[in-house]
Amino acid sequence: MIDRQHLAILREVSRRGSVTAAAEKLNVTQSALSHTIAKFEERHGIKIWMKTGRGLRLTQAGEYLLTVAERVLPQMEHAQRVLTDFALGRRGALRVGMECHPCQRWLTRIATPYLTQWPDVDFDVRTAFRFDGIEALLGYEIDLLITPDPVETPELLFTPVFDYELVLMVHEAHPLAGQVRVQPQDLLDEELITVPVTLERLDIYTRFLVPANCRPRQHRTAETIDLMLQLVCAGRGVTVLPDWLLQEDASRLPIRALRLGDSGIQKSINLGVRRGEETTSYIDGFLKLARQRER
Amino acid sequence: MIDRQHLAILREVSRRGSVTAAAEKLNVTQSALSHTIAKFEERHGIKIWMKTGRGLRLTQAGEYLLTVAERVLPQMEHAQRVLTDFALGRRGALRVGMECHPCQRWLTRIATPYLTQWPDVDFDVRTAFRFDGIEALLGYEIDLLITPDPVETPELLFTPVFDYELVLMVHEAHPLAGQVRVQPQDLLDEELITVPVTLERLDIYTRFLVPANCRPRQHRTAETIDLMLQLVCAGRGVTVLPDWLLQEDASRLPIRALRLGDSGIQKSINLGVRRGEETTSYIDGFLKLARQRER
DNA sequence: CAATCATTATGATTCTCACTCATGAGTAAA
DNA sequence: TTTACTCATGAGTGAGAATCATAATGATTG
């Protein structure tokens, strides 16, 4: 079998012009190289080089093998460097899973500096998983999960990055607009707009409506946050979103934010990683950036 | 260092889905593979795979290394096959040296079937050497020499392929045209055209003129046989060429061929190879073809 | 033309490291 | 549970790779 070693010897001998010099470079004795090639020749029934005078001359087979070496060795050496990058955590693929639809813009603000800081890291964002984000993280579909619903397990580690409150968004002309807070009963006659996930994953149900055994008059879904806000602006329903959305681009929209219940629904966005990987430098780098710009 | 072996293991494990199966295919124990990769991981400070359930999952580094394996291993395997071709003599480079200018056309007739018969052999023809053809053969500049002047040595082996006679070519209107043979003195007043080589390598000198201590009135050279014939046709001089040239394309030219001296200059074309290489199959193949079509 | 130098080849010896064996530990299937 | 199958791991062994010493051979030099 042709081995990396044989190719390396051949290339080095060709470069330095002698077995002795090549041996020195490769940190073995001249004898070792001589033996190695002699054995190779014997195994393959072919001459690689011949002694001519005090030097060597490559045979045709040797010349050929040299071209192979010149082509293949650089590939392996590059792989070697990439592997070192992996070892130092400089390189990898950070597949980010998003379970928090409104966080898209926040993520964008993190991603920009991250990409320049870790140029060799593949960065990928996914929002659709086979099951939920936790499963995706456990199943190595993703490497980092952005979620408002952390589930501490022995395998996963979550770190909160910022807190927020879920509020009811209504049009400023809406009957409820004058209130500071709403109760579950207030929604009985409303059309509720949410992102398209199962009801068990909607806090407005699990922590607000269901405990009070209330349901909205109607429930519809919208794909994007923008669409949801537009629908609310058009008076086509009410929705539940993080409070900070109004403090940003939506601040000039004709929308009012109302607290849900007496104390509001308090949440926090968490970043989840597999336990043990939080020290991987390019993952740690992301966590650090996320903690810096909390919102 | 990344070694062929590591890549092979990774690829086989990926193909068969388990270390155990891969080990069987690679003719080692499962333990060996496990140890090998463990050592590799330790050396590089990196995980290649992780145990999950009863199977394995490649890490990112492992996935990367797998792509390297899929790319590099086929190259080495191809090199392996080529090397086998070399060993079996199916492949090589046949660098043919020509010391016989008029043989060009003869060589072409050999080359055509040869190229189809030995598709993997590089075929190259050289006519210019640093010194002479023998030196080129000894110095591995060429692998086969076509020459009318063989020099038997312990290192070289010559086989004659066909005999011919060197004749004087004159225009049919030339004063000598009526004779059957010419003597050295007949050339004293002629312009002699030869190929551009040293006089010692021209039989017309060494075997005809010099022994009789004669010289032509003038001596000029021409690069190609065609040009030499054209010059003779134009009555611009006489030349010395193999007799069979007239039996071919030159047969309808206004040229007469005269014997040189009483018994003529008899020659034969020889193929020379380095002793020991005559059994190399692609060289032997050429010799066989050459002997078949003698002219 | 010796004498010296510089190169590769080769035989004998040493020793490393890759492999095997035996077994443990974890997981999935029965 | 039990069984079956997987990979991991520690200890021991042997093949083969490296070394050392030296021969052989060709170049260089005074």
Q: Descriptors for this entry?
A:
homodimer; 295 residues; alpha/beta; Arc Repressor Mutant, subunit A; D-Maltodextrin-Binding Protein, domain 2; 3 domains; ten-stranded mixed β-sheet; two-stranded antiparallel ribbon; rod-shaped; DNA-binding
Give the overall silhouette of chain A: rod-shaped
Main interface: chain pair and counts: A-B, 28 and 28 residues
Assembly context of the chains: homodimer
Query: What is the CATH fold-level name of the largest domain in chain A?
Result: D-Maltodextrin-Binding Protein, domain 2
Element order of chain A: H for helix, E for strand: HHHEEHEHEHEEEEHEHEHEEH
CATH superfamily of the largest domain in chain A: Periplasmic binding protein-like II
Note the beta-strand portion of chain A.
Answer: 15-25%
Poorly predicted spans of chain A: none
Counted beta strands of chain A: 12
Give average pLDDT of chain A, whole number: 88
User: Under the CATH scheme, which architecture of the largest domain in chain A would be assigned?
Assistant: 3-Layer(aba) Sandwich
Q: Round the Cα radius of gyration of chain A to an integer and report it.
A: 32 Å
Give the tally of structural domains of chain A.
3
Number of discrete helical segments of chain A:
10
Q: Which CATH first-tier class of the largest domain in chain A would you pick?
A: Alpha Beta
Helix content range of chain A: 25-40%
Q: What is the CA–CA distance across the termini of chain A? A: 58 Å
Helix-strand makeup class of chain A: alpha/beta
Largest sheet of chain A: 10 strands, mixed
